[in-house]
Amino acid sequence: MDEISIKLLKLLERDASLTTSELAIMLDRPSDEIAQRVAELERSRIVVRRKALVNWERVGEETVTALIEVKVSPQREVGFGAIAARIARFSEARSVHLMSGTYDLAVEVTGRTMKEVANFVSEKLAPLDGVQGTTTHFLLKRYKEDGELLDEPEPPPRLPFTP
Questions:
Q1: What is the pLDDT of residues 99-129, one digit of tens each?
Q2: Are the beta carbons of 21 and 33 closer than 8 angstroms?
Q3: Which of 25, 87, 95, 141 is a plausible cystine mate for 108, CB 3.0–4.6 Å?
Q4: What residues does each domain of the chain span?
C-alpha cells in the first residue's frame, strides 16, 4: 500500500467525519483522487465502517458492558474460527477476539442491565457446543476508548495570534 493511502487511513481512523475536501487539503491531493481512494478502501473492506465515539454516560443512557472470557474446544480443520464466528453473530456481542492465555476468546457484550448480560451468557453463550467455560467481568467505568479520554474537558479555544 502506498504512502498516501496509509496517511489517508490514519486520518480517517482518527476522525471519520473528515470530508473528502478536508482530506484532500490535508494530503495535498485532488478531491476526486481522495474520493476514489476512500471508495476503494471501503470496497476492499480495509475501511470497514466509519463511526462516532459516543460517551453514553453523558447522554444519560444506562447500559452495561461486560468482557467475557471464553474457553473453547477448537474444532478440527477450522480451529477457533467457527465458534468465534458463531458468537460474533449474536447481536449482543460487540467484539470477539482470539487471545492468548488461559481463555481463548474475549467477547465484549452490552445490554441494558446486568441481568440481561447474565442471561445472554447463561442462555446463549455457555450452552454453545465447544464452549467449556466462561468468566464475566463487568465494566464499571470507561475512562478511555479508542485512544480518547472520555471525561477530559474540552481545551479552551486558542486565541488568534496577532503580531
A1: 999 999 999 999 999 999 999 999 999 999 9
A2: no
A3: 95
A4: 3-43, 59-140
Q: Per DSSP, which regions of the chain are E strands?
A: 64-72, 93-98, 105-111, 131-138, 144-145, 148-149
Q: Locate cell 449474536: which residue? A: 90
> Which amino acid, residue 153?
P
> In sequence order, what are the residues at sequence separation of 6 or more whose Cβ sits closer than 8 angstroms to the Cβ of residue 24?
30, 31, 33, 34
CATH number attached to the domain at 3-43: 1.10.10
Q: Which residues, including other chains, have CB under 8 Å from residue 31's CB and lie 6 or more apart?
A: 20, 21, 24
Torsion of CA 142, 145, 149, 153, to 10 degrees: -80
Per-residue pLDDT tens over the stretch 31-85:
999 999 999 999 999 999 988 888 888 888 888 999 999 999 988 888 899 999 9
> Which CATH architecture group holds 59-140?
2-Layer Sandwich (3.30)
